[in-house]
Design a protein that fits this description.
Elements: E1 3-4, H1 5-12, E2 16-18, E3 24-25, E4 27-29, E5 39-42, H2 54-60, E6 62-67, E7 76-78, H3 82-93, E8 100-105, H4 110-121, E9 127-129, H5 139-145, E10 153-157, H6 165-173, E11 177-180, H7 188-191, H8 194-202, E12 210-214, H9 221-226, E13 230-235, E14 242-251, E15 254-261, E16 264-270, H10 276-288, E17 309-313, E18 316-321, H11 327-337, E19 343-349, H12 357-369, E20 375-379, H13 383-391, E21 397-400, H14 403-413, E22 418-423, H15 430-435
């Protein structure tokens, strides 16, 4: 996306302009290392102060910088808050051309669902989506600013963990179409309760004209009851615009599915290990139905690393869900694991950002102890509580302190025919151990 200097000034209202020059910016970044020619650098303050890297960004091709304090001999736009300026610039850029904007939020499955929606819309529109986990107050505006000016549709993942975050995100992206995946009691350390999570995520509807809701998720009912725009519903059991008619396991890593999509039938092979991912598929189909003229094709969809990716090595079947974890999604995943063929081994690390984490982990240990899983291997200080509770009810329960130790213990347990499942919050580093098994 190209942004003229006069347009940037209108967008961010700088308190001071140093060395104006009628520039045209075509790349936008907060990271001096990836700066490109004709770029604009935003000096954000975080663990490191972006002002320390302004000169590096200029050397790499930046024409100017957005800063909170003047920099000697550097063309700059001085503002009170560089993060706010980044959001303001992105929001303004959306007024320069027309794009369909679909915002996705929820507590689980956002990234996988985003990739499904992107796949469907790309068949009929020039489509871009937020890369990786760029779903926050930095990633979303940088993505919007760097979009191609000919893009017709934007699929925007919008994640939050603290109060007020969605207000800012939605005012930047202003999605007119919204999709909710399932809502859980995540980030309760900051949002307090399931109701707090729902109300914060529900703010994504502020500018929405159309929205897709999960009929199987009772937490969403207050949101769809209040929403006055056009609605689509998806469900695995109830009558809905997009409904699961049936599924069958073909192998540990493949399912066959049959879906009713806006009155039409979709059948195909779904290369995912767990039926939980079918809910993501239904969600994506419901959202895509607002835009598509043709019935979507589900062939070619693939799981993402850390979010359900599976593979076989030396006769052992591995499942990687190490990107994130919360109590509800963990129980659903382990229930699916209990239905797979083989010696089932669950390697579980701590669930982070929870209110009363010891209590939550103890309750989790009691619940999962009853599932048909052959070995439970816990790692981390919080999972120690889960292990203590599980040991009160069953055998073949182990606890270690670190993911590295979990890997060593796993080598003692596994054999050809084993099914190994990894899940934990990203901050625990379990994903680093998973890489050793690929």
């Amino acid at each position: 996306m190209r942004l003229r200097e006069d347009e940037l000034i209108r967008a961010i209202s700088p308190v001071e302009i140093i060395n104006p020059g009628g520039r045209v910016f075509s790349y936008f970044s907060f990271d001096s290392r990836d700066m490109k020619k004709d770029g604009l650098f935003f000096a954000l303050k975080g663990q490191r102060d972006g002002h320390d890297f302004v000169k590096d960004a200029i050397k790499k091709g930046a024409l100017a910088a957005v800063v909170e304090r003047p920099m000697e001999f550097i063309p700059a736009f001085v503002v009170k808050d560089t993060l706010k300026a980044l959001g303001d610039a992105a929001s303004f850029s959306l007024t320069l051309n027309k794009t369909l904007r679909l915002g996705i939020t929820g507590s689980a499955g956002k990234t996988t669902t985003k990739e499904f929606v992107f796949s469907f819309l790309s068949k009929e529109f020039r489509t871009e989506r937020t890369p990786g986990n760029w779903n926050n107050l930095i990633g979303v505006p940088v993505f919007i600013l760097n979009r191609d000016e000919h893009t017709e549709a934007l699929v925007i993942e919008m994640g939050i963990s603290i109060p007020g975050e969605m207000d800012k995100l939605v005012d930047i992206a202003k999605p007119r179409t919204v999709l909710f995946t399932r809502i859980y009691a995540t980030h309760t350390q900051f949002l307090g309760s399931l109701e707090g999570v729902r109300e914060e995520k529900g703010k994504i509807l502020k500018h929405a004209e159309r929205a897709a809701f999960n009929l199987d998720d009772n937490a969403q009912e207050p949101l769809w009851e209040r929403f006055a725009g056009e609605k689509r519903f998806f469900s695995s059991s109830r009558e809905a615009d997009v409904k699961l008619l049936g599924w069958k396991r073909i192998s540990n890593g493949k399912l066959s599915v049959e879906i009713s999509y806006m009155g039409k039938e979709i059948k195909g092979v779904f290369p995912f290990w767990s039926p939980v991912f079918i809910e993501n598929l239904l969600a994506a189909l419901a959202a895509a139905s607002f835009f598509l003229r043709e019935k979507p094709d589900i062939e070619g969809l693939k799981p993402l690393e850390g979010r359900g990716q599976s593979w076989e090595r030396d006769g052992i079947f591995f499942i990687d869900e190490s990107y994130n974890s919360n109590p509800d999604s963990l129980v659903r995943a382990l229930f699916s694991l209990s239905g797979l063929e083989g010696t089932r081994i669950a390697v579980l690390s701590d669930m982070l950002e929870l209110k009363d984490p010891e209590k939550v982990h103890r309750e989790m240990g009691k619940k999962i102890a009853d599932l048909k899983i052959d070995y439970l291997l816990f790692c981390g200080e919080l999972m120690k509580y889960a292990a203590e509770e599980a040991l009160n009810k069953r055998e073949k329960v182990f606890w270690v302190e670190t993911p590295e130790e979990a890997g060593k213990k796993l080598r003692e347990i596994i054999s050809p025919g084993s099914v190994v499942f990894f899940k934990g919050s990203h901050g625990t580093g379990l994903w680093q151990e998973v890489q050793k098994w690929k």
